[in-house]
């Protein structure tokens, strides 16, 4: 006969997800919102550039000034006194080009909410370029710290454009089996829903001056901008975090 006192209790007949039914759900987070320092208006640029990676922010740093600031995207769950609350600042590079600088990391759980507000009735671009980095765990293949590489993904509308008219002309497509996540993927997905021409460029290494010059060459069609970069100016983005990393994933 079993000892009912010392024997381990039988497993619960309730599944773990059933036990969560007795837990009070967390209140939903409020939606992000756009804050315009001047008169609120609908922005309709020909091109919206989303700078997420450190090299892309370095490339445009001379243009990201208080004078060019057009709007800021705010996450309400962060205190207004926190300088990191300005998760994304939108600057006007010209009458036809806007750049959204993602200066601080955006949680994956908030990525689509940010994309939905960024591409809404207040901002209606004709085309979008997203500049992001390759996350090593998401890439299928070998990544070398000695070679700067970049790949692209496109929305269906952009995919139909002929060579020579594409936003990221000259780049190869991201290898099959590799994935992109985070706010860059969310914005590309939003462009797909809204049928906007969009190209997502992912580059490696994440912190490297060679990537800055690679992006500069990629965006040479923006002839109205003189990036004027030298090696010394971007050296602070050199091999500081991933200089010995290699990724080789097998499927």
Distance between the termini: 51 Å
Q: How is the largest sheet built, in terms of strand order?
A: 1-3-4-5-2-6-9-7-8
User: Total number of helical segments?
Assistant: 7
Q: What fraction strand? A: 15-25%
CATH topology: Rossmann fold
Describe the 3D structure.
Helix 3 (111-118) crosses helix 5. With 251 residues, this protein is an alpha/beta fold. The chain has a single domain (43-237), classed as Rossmann fold (3-Layer(aba) Sandwich), CATH 3.40.50.10900. The longest helix has 12 residues, at 183-194. It has helices at residues 16-19, 54-59, 111-118, 156-159, 183-194, 209-218, 231-234; strands at residues 33-35, 47-51, 69-74, 86-92, 97-102, 127-133, 149-154, 172-173, 197-204. Strands 1-3-4-5-2-6-9-7-8 form a 9-stranded mixed sheet.
Write the layout of secondary structure elements.
Blueprint: H1 16-19, E1 33-35, E2 47-51, H2 54-59, E3 69-74, E4 86-92, E5 97-102, H3 111-118, E6 127-133, E7 149-154, H4 156-159, E8 172-173, H5 183-194, E9 197-204, H6 209-218, H7 231-234
Parallel strand pairs: 2-5, 2-6, 6-9, 7-8
Antiparallel strand pairs: 1-3, 3-4, 4-5, 7-9
Entry keywords:
9-stranded mixed β-sheet, 20% strand, 7 helices, Rossmann fold, 251 residues, Proteasome assembly chaperone 1, alpha/beta
Outline of this structure?
By secondary structure, the chain is of the alpha/beta class. It has helices at residues 16-19, 54-59, 111-118, 156-159, 183-194, 209-218, 231-234; strands at residues 33-35, 47-51, 69-74, 86-92, 97-102, 127-133, 149-154, 172-173, 197-204.
């Amino acid at each position: 006969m079993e000892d009912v006192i010392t024997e381990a209790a039988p497993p619960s007949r309730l599944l773990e997800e059933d036990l969560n039914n007795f837990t009070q759900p967390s209140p939903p987070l409020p939606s992000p919102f756009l804050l315009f320092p001047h008169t609120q208006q609908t922005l309709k640029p020909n091109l919206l550039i989303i700078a997420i990676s450190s090299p892309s922010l370095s490339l445009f740093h001379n243009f990201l000034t208080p004078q060019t600031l057009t709007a800021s995207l705010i996450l309400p769950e962060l205190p207004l006194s926190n300088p990191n609350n300005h998760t994304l600042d939108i600057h006007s590079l010209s009458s036809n080009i806007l750049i959204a600088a993602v200066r601080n990391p955006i949680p994956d759980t908030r990525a689509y909410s940010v994309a939905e507000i960024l591409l809404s009735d207040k901002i209606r671009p004709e085309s979008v370029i997203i500049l992001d980095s390759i996350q090593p765990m998401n890439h299928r293949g070998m990544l070398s710290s000695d070679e700067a590489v970049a790949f692209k993904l496109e929305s269906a509308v952009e995919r139909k454009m002929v060579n020579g008219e594409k936003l990221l002309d000259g780049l190869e497509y991201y290898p099959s089996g590799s994935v992109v996540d985070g706010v860059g993927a969310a914005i590309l997905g939003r462009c797909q829903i809204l049928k906007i021409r969009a190209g997502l460029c992912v580059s490696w290494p994440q912190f490297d001056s060679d990537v800055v010059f690679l992006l500069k060459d990629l965006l040479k069609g923006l002839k109205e901008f003189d990036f004027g970069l030298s090696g010394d100016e971007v050296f602070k983005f050199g091999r500081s975090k991933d200089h010995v990393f290699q990724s080789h994933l097998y499927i």
